[in-house]
Design goal:
Elements lengths: L1 E7 L7 E9 L2 E7 H7 L4 E3 L4 E4 L1 E6 L16 H13 L3 H17 L2 E8 L14 E8 L9 H12 L7 E6 L7 H14 L3 E5 L3 H9 L3 H8 L13 H9 L5 E5 L5 H9 L7 E4 L1 H7 L6 H6 L4 E3 L12 H11 L5 H7 L2 H6 L15 E4 L8 H6 L7 E4 L2 E3 L2
Parallel strand pairs: 1-4, 1-5, 6-7, 7-8, 8-9, 10-11, 11-12, 12-13
Antiparallel strand pairs: 1-2, 2-3, 5-14, 14-15, 15-16
Helix pairs in contact: 5-8, 6-7
């Protein structure tokens, strides 16, 4: 088929007025002006009007389990207080609550143009009875070895699914040791080995808060005291390591690793990241709404861009942000980083996320996956990328894996 739009945003190239995209199966076969594509390709023409046709948005870090928690936790005095609060809420909910939350969250993501989501799954047993996701979903198994959950047959069956199959309706499976303060060094070593053997992506939270920094760098602080009371082995907090150095000590990273947050870094951390060969570097995912909610230190975007890191965007969970719209996340980012060109910001919400997940997507070019959205925009705005970021309307048309989804 041929998709025609007022403007096509390839992301990997310049905008194309009165553009068109040819799709065969689940793959983009050509992109150019409508006249060029129509002359060279047969098939049905779908006219999307004067909207902007662009790659679907990639939400590279999300916790759909907590979709029902929107505005349930007001900003707390500290990051540790927030952990206590969300743990109390989680204890009050059951499997059906979480399953409904995931379905609701997927619908909200679709409503706002996300075609791919990297979701951290805390309750793997939910997947045994989960409806097929309408989105390209990569399910990351959350792994914690501080205060183990009670293991049931359902939990084991759900967890094994992450290792027994590598396809999930066009998505996939990955591993997610939660964070250095909840996942031990030996667990990280085990994950690194398993991920390398099975070619699985890995996502972990690291260097998120100042309290995490104080815990590892100085062996003190509110998070340190909290984890000590939980019985965590704390000897790894006396090495004057930053959280990032603590992590690389056990993992060595690799290009399949995605590091969420990365707010608290010092100069030696940037030197460490820059020393990793580009082909072996992890990606970094920033969650602007969650970052603002916690009032974290400014995200070091400029330094990360300067050393050539792949930085993408996520929503995090509705326990720490108020929207699963990636348009909202881009606008928050634009407010915080006014120097950032709109085209680069849109790339962070599409192409960079796809790169982090090792997907040939997030761009419109021959060979890429046909994951596309049509975005309403204000034609009076001179910069089409800025106009896309400004969109506050639901997405009226979406294609995933070459299939058109109903709104």
């Amino acid at each position: 088929m041929i998709l025609r739009a007022g403007v096509v945003l390839p992301i990997s190239g310049a905008p194309i007025p009165n553009g068109a995209v040819a799709v065969s199966g689940n793959t983009i076969t050509a992109v150019g002006s409508f006249e060029e594509i129509r002359a060279a390709h047969g098939g049905e023409v779908i006219d999307l009007g004067e909207r902007a046709l662009m790659p679907g948005l990639v939400t590279a870090h999300c916790h759909l389990d907590y979709t029902m928690m929107r505005r349930s936790i007001q900003p707390q005095r500290s990051f540790t207080e927030w952990i206590r609060r969300i743990n109390a809420l989680k204890r009050s909910l059951g499997a059906e609550d979480y399953r409904a939350a995931i379905v609701k969250g997927l619908a909200e993501l679709q409503h706002w143009g996300t075609t791919t989501v990297a979701n951290i799954e805390s309750f793997p047993e939910l997947l045994t009875e989960m409806p097929v996701s309408p989105l390209r979903t990569i399910w990351f198994l959350e792994m914690i070895d501080v205060r183990h959950r009670v293991t049931t047959e359902e939990v084991v069956t759900g967890a094994l699914a992450f290792f027994e199959k590598h396809e999930a309706h066009g998505g996939g499976f990955g591993l997610s040791p939660h964070a250095p303060y909840t996942a031990s060094g030996p667990l990280y070593e085990l994950v690194a080995h398993a991920a390398a053997e099975l070619d699985m992506p890995v996502m972990t939270h690291v260097a998120e808060s100042r309290e995490e920094w104080d815990m590892f760098r100085n062996a003190r602080g509110e998070l340190y005291d909290f984890m000590l009371r939980l019985g965590r082995w704390m000897h790894d907090c006396h090495q004057e390591h930053t959280p990032l150095k603590h992590l690389i000590h056990y993992t060595g990273f690799g290009s399949r690793w995605i590091l969420a947050h990365m707010n608290e870094l010092d100069d030696s951390d940037f030197v460490l990241l820059a020393s990793i060969p580009r082909a072996e570097r992890p990606s970094i995912v920033h969650c602007p709404g969650s970052h603002r909610y916690f009032r974290h230190a400014p995200f070091p975007l400029a330094k990360l861009v300067e050393i050539g890191m792949n930085v993408c965007l996520g929503t995090d969970s509705l326990a720490s942000t108020f929207s699963l719209s990636m348009f909202d996340q881009m606008r928050i980012m634009a407010d915080c980083e006014p120097w950032l060109h709109p085209a680069d910001l849109v790339a962070m919400a599409t192409l960079n996320g796809a790169r982090a997940l090792k997907m040939n997507a997030g761009k419109i070019e021959p060979g890429a996956l046909a994951d596309l959205i049509a975005v309403p925009h204000d034609p009076s705005m001179r910069d089409i990328h800025a106009a896309v970021i400004a969109n506050r309307e639901p997405i009226p048309w979406m294609m995933i894996d070459g299939h058109i989804l109903s709104p």
